[in-house]
Design goal:
This protein is an alpha+beta fold and 203 residues long. Helix content is 12%, strand content 26%.
């Protein structure tokens, strides 16, 4: 099968498209024919040996895929041949096929495209900063929650950063309070602790 292979640590231009053996799934794995694979910032880090874990060289990057199950391990239950799935494989996704532990494989409905299904990690990288990572008290008891979100003039939720920049954000969580000035910014840019009931309102 063909795969994008990292044979030496470096930037993306060091990657190669090679013919490699098709992986053989273990008894607790499934083999997936990859139809789409997410491309994320961790992929750039992992090929430079700068991520939290390091696969043994050579390897294929690509931590999330969507496709069809073409082989089942003997001990796999709850999944079927021919089933459309998404999988969080960690690496190995930039290939025509990938073997993934069955507990990291999830069926997807026919209405969900493989391109969308293969963006699980992309979504989480925005969702978790909004709800957990960007405020140490977010989501705990009666805390105000995440204070780094603001509403842009186009009605989309944004993250306000100390340097005055911003990034896409899925939603604003927490209790209602009065808007706060955005750190590092001025003018009409403001932070808001907004609950689901006012998530669609503009500031």
């Amino acid at each position: 099968m063909k795969a994008v292979v990292c044979s030496q640590f470096g930037l993306p231009d060091t990657l190669q498209v090679l013919d490699i053996p098709t992986p053989v799934p273990s008894s607790k794995q499934v083999l997936i024919a990859v139809e789409a694979c997410g491309v994320n910032f961790p992929d750039v880090l992992i090929i430079q040996n700068k991520y939290q874990f390091t696969p043994v060289l050579p390897f294929s990057p690509g931590g999330e895929v969507a496709g069809t199950i073409v082989e089942l391990g003997d001990e796999v239950q709850g999944l079927e041949l021919g089933q459309r799935v998404l999988a969080l494989c960690g690496w190995g996704g930039f290939a025509e096929k990938v073997a993934v532990d069955a507990d990291r494989v999830f069926p997807i409905p026919q209405s969900l495209s493989v391109e969308v299904a293969a963006t699980t990690l992309v979504y989480l990288r925005h969702f978790l900063p909004c709800t957990e990572r960007s405020c140490p008290t977010a989501g705990r008891g009666n805390s105000p929650g995440f204070r780094g979100c603001r509403r842009s003039g186009f009605g989309s939720s944004r993250i306000g950063y100390p340097d005055g920049g911003s990034g896409d954000c899925c939603r604003v969580y927490g209790r209602k309070t009065n808007p706060l000035p955005r750190e590092g910014g001025g003018g009409n840019d403001q932070l808001r602790n907004g609950g689901p009931e006012n998530a669609n309102q503009r500031t």
